[in-house]
Structure prediction request, 385 residues.
Amino acid sequence: MSHKVLSCGDFVKLLNDYVDLNVSTKESQLIEKHLDVCNSCKIKVGNAVKVKKMIKSTYGIGASTIDVRSAVMSKLRSRNNISVGSAKNVDLSSRIMSKITDNKKPVNVIKLSLSVIENYKVLSIAVATLFIITATIVYSQSESKKLMAARSKIESYAVEHSSTAPTDHRASTDSFVDNMGNGITSVNFSE
Amino acid sequence: MKTDEKIIERVLAGDISKFEMLIEKYQTQVFYVAMNISRNKDTAEDIVQDAFIKAFDKLQTLNERAHFFPWLKRITINLALNNYDKNKRIVDVEVEDSEVSFFDRLPDDSDPESIMINDELKRYVRLYVDALPERLRRVIIMREVEDLSYEEISEILKIPLGTVRSRLFNARQVVKDRLIKQGLTDSLVSRTAN
Prediction:
């Protein structure tokens, strides 16, 4: 890079950065070498700098003035509701004190209500636990009754079948076929 | 005069009346910042008020208190840009290098010879800069007038650094070419050289 010589095309690419002082020391040295031998590029730099200065002076601070002090300050004061000067401390302290006094009630109410909730919480947990225990007992009792009934049915069935099984085998088969027949009444046997 | 740091310290301690000193010190400068973007005096005045109120609200977040003005300037620029975008009615859809549209948008002007040369130059510079497409105009104003770096412009406008460079290049090129065509560049050089 240090041995490179800039062409006018290379220089134009760097012109903006150069006039904005955005180039490195090496680039700056290269540009200055080029400007020493290239008058047209020197004119380009001169024009760019002059246009920059002219834009700045055109849009710089002019004769127009404004005074927004009172507008801004009154907005800030009304919004913050704070007065200025010696009265400020009095106003502020009384306001803070009034806030503290006002806030006492809600804090107590909140504390009280929290303690009530705490009490109810314990009570509701106790009721819920009692309910769950009762329900479990009732459920287990009903289940055991059902189980007992089922057992007695099975036992009676077993006793009944153990005595009649060899002789009633055909009859039970017939009844099975009859039952099946009831379910397929719509089947067409003509084919 | 108290430094900005001391004033800010007092304001943050609760003495909001001291904020008035900052307003007095910087209101004209930020007014021109707002004016250069909004191009409307009344709008600029509203923006200045909003900028100071926002600065007051965010004062606690300003780490380097000595840099109050650059910080306030950025607040003002952002408010002005938002305001402009919110209120603009004509969508800028032209190509950046569209020279024809640029000239078409130039308003009719009186004879340049009838006014003083320096005022004439400024008047034409303003005419040409204001006639640029808004996206080019913003970049050139932020760079040449507000002295913002390429990086700052990129951040504020939320555009890549390369776009900042190309827009700045195009904007300068258009203004310079126009001044040359009007035969004003030579007189510009000789004027500012004095």
Notes: Residues 1-60 of chain A form one domain.
